[in-house]
Amino acid sequence: MEWLLIIITLVVLWVASLFKILHESQTASQVAVLNDGGVFCKRNVLLVIAHPDDESMFFSPTINYLSSRGCNLHILCMSTGNADGMGNVRKEELYLASIVLKVPQKQVKILDHPDLQDGFGKSWNCKLLSKIIKEEVVNCAIDLVITFDNYGVSGHCNHQDVHQGVRKLLQDTSHKEVDAWELVSTSILRKYSGPVDIWLSLLSAKFHLSGVVHCFLNEHPRRSLAAMAQHRSQWVWFRRLFVSFSSYTYVNCLKKID
C-alpha cells in the first residue's frame, strides 16, 4: 500500500510538472524559471558542442529560450560524430535539427578535424579547441559562449574536453570581454526525473553557493522532440526513452564560468 501511494504521488507530480511546462509554452509570457535580468537577451551567442545531437539532447531549452529573446545564435560542433562511421550522415542530421530549432543553417559549423575525432578515450587538445573557438568568436563577433561543464552531463570525455577548450580561451586576457556559461550537470536521479526536475532546478539555482545560476524552462518541448527526431541515425529506442525522461529536455541551468 505504501509503495502504491509513492507511485501515485510520483505520477501526479510528473503529470503536474509536464502540464506546467506545456501550459507555459502556450502562453504569451515566455516565462523562464528564473529571470535572467537581460543577461542573455539579444546577444551574439556561440553554442560549443562535441557531437551532432548534443544540441537537441542537452541544450534545447537554452536554444529555445535564446531564440525567443532575439539572440543571434551560432552552433560550433567540434566533430561529425564519426565513431560508428556515420559522420557524413550525422552532419546532415544536425543541419536538419538546426532548422527545427530556428538556428540558421549558415550559422552551424561542423568540424572534421583529424585530431578531433569522436570516441571515448580520444582526448582532444584544449589548446587546439581554444584556437578554433577563438577564431569563431572573432569571425562572428561572439560575446557569449555556452558549453558543457567539467563533467559534461554524461561524463563523455569529448564533452569535458570542449569545456576545457572554452576555459583555455577565457585564460586569454584579450578575450575577457566574452562571457562563458556552462550547462550544469545533475545527479543521475535528477537527470532521469523528467519534468519533475524543474522544481529541483529552481531550488538548486536559487540557493546555489558557488556562483550565479540561471535556470530556463523549455518553452517549446515539442520542438525539442522534433529536433531530436531529425537525428534519425541516433533515434533508437533507448534514446527515445532518454529524451522523454531526461530533465535536460525540460529545463537547463546555466552557471557562469569564472
TrEMBL record:
<feature type="signal peptide">
    <location>
        <begin position="1"/>
        <end position="18"/>
    </location>
</feature>
<keyword id="KW-0732">Signal</keyword>
<dbReference type="InterPro" id="IPR024078">
    <property type="entry name" value="LmbE-like_dom_sf"/>
</dbReference>
<comment type="similarity">
    <text>Belongs to the PIGL family.</text>
</comment>
<dbReference type="Pfam" id="PF02585">
    <property type="entry name" value="PIG-L"/>
</dbReference>
<dbReference type="GO" id="GO:0005783">
    <property type="term" value="C:endoplasmic reticulum"/>
</dbReference>
<dbReference type="GO" id="GO:0000225">
    <property type="term" value="F:N-acetylglucosaminylphosphatidylinositol deacetylase activity"/>
</dbReference>
<dbReference type="InterPro" id="IPR003737">
    <property type="entry name" value="GlcNAc_PI_deacetylase-related"/>
</dbReference>
<protein>
    <recommendedName>
        <fullName>N-acetylglucosaminylphosphatidylinositol deacetylase</fullName>
        <ecNumber>3.5.1.89</ecNumber>
    </recommendedName>
</protein>
